[in-house]
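During the second half of the funding period, the structural biology subgroup turned its attention to how the target accommodates small molecules. The most pressing case was aspartic acid, which had performed well in the primary screen but for which no bound structure existed. We therefore specified the complex as follows and requested a full 3D prediction, including the ligand pose.
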Amino acid sequence: MKGKLHNLIFVGMIVGLVVGLGLHYVLKGAEHAGNLPPAWSQTLMWWLDLLGPTIFMGALKMIIAPLILASIVAGVTSLPNMSELGSIGWKTLVYYVCTTTVAVAIGLVFVLTVQPGERGASTEVRAKREAEIERIAREFESTSGKSARTADGEATGEFRSHLATESGDAAATGENARRYESFSGKKDQTAADLFRDDVIKPVLQNPFAALSASPPNSLGIIFFALLLGIACTVVGEKASQVVAFFHGLNHVIMQMARWLMAISPFAIACIMAKLVAENGPGIFETLGWYCAVVIGGIVVHVGFLVAVCATIGGIGPVRLWQGIREAWMIAFTTRSSAATLPVTMQNVKEKLGVSPKVANFCLPLGATMNMDGTALYEGVAVIFLIQIYGGLADVPFAMTMGVTLVIFITAVLASVGAAAVPDAGLVTMILVANAVNLPIYYVPLIFAVDAFLDMFRTSTNVLGDAVGAVVVNQLETRRRE
Ligand code: ASP
């Protein structure tokens, strides 16, 4: 049964997809006919939500915070000396920076070549917005008695701010109001603010608050765990019981992760069914080209990671896939690298042969900071929106080298700041949009496909972390030889 878990998870995904599609048509059919959905379908949705997102993901989230704490303390304290920590640490960080940069570059090449914002239904989206801006301009002129445009046809500052207020209000009351509000608070955040608020402040938090936050403050836990581990090593013999406690805790939490993996095929079916039932296949009608670009970029980046793993890490594609497939499928379905962390740890240590010293340190750090799929997606999404709306009254610019460079840098930063939970990339994308002055009320256009794309970026994030652990492990082994 154990060896077949990946097959069962795959079956769970397919069953979830089929049940979800059936349920989607039942719910949609009732909506079109103006009826309430049948009672059984609502009951089924309720149970899917309970068994998948609530119980399974809840249980995974329950063990993340203690797992990060225990695994990093165990990792640091099992190193023979501090120079080894430094050696693993810098290799890990260099790997993260390089692969994330490559991911963003691949995304930018794809989106600038394919130009999804100028194809298919995107042109209609732009035409609709143009007409809407004209209507708002006429209203503005008749109520204020002032012209909306200067002599050269550019929008006046006053009209632009009127447009921004109107459009922001429309986004905040439309169908995506709740989601829009969750990130509109970040609309004035700069890259420096993000660094202070989302990196420095969380790092220096009371560890108990960091452990009990929801989702847990992983950066805070990691920093505290590193300090704790280093202090234990410095103190030596007197700290031996503390060290033994964290090593024991690490094993215990991994045992809990194994129990959860045993029920994962069933839970994955429930999560998938609920997601598909809610979204259905219609979401691709307007955003097909955009999705194709994100997924195309991700496929190429996965190819790059596989090549890195084979050449530097010494593990070929087949062995890599066999080792990581359970974590990959769980990441794909749960859309959370943090929730997948216990499975990634287990797969990387037990199936890819990475030493616990390296895995215990690299993987929690990677789940928190290394998000290749998210970085790629953020760059593509912002450029896609500029391609659609660039040149309109409230987006008075087009893609230039300067704008591309700003997007490049902020996408890397925003991916580091993103939490490892579903939809997090959408929130930190606001930083990238702000950096180039793209109004954030345009972001809801891509809400519809976000959950779908989150599956691809999260599974890529997890793959990037696993390959990172393999590469660092291999480099460390060679260094010691
Ligand atoms: N869901 C992603 C993750 O957990 C983050 C994102 O939204 O891009 O890795």
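Two results from this model are relevant to the next phase. The chain has a mean pLDDT of 87. Residues 335-337, 371, 374, 418, 420-425, 454, 457-458, 461 surround aspartic acid (CB under 6 Å).
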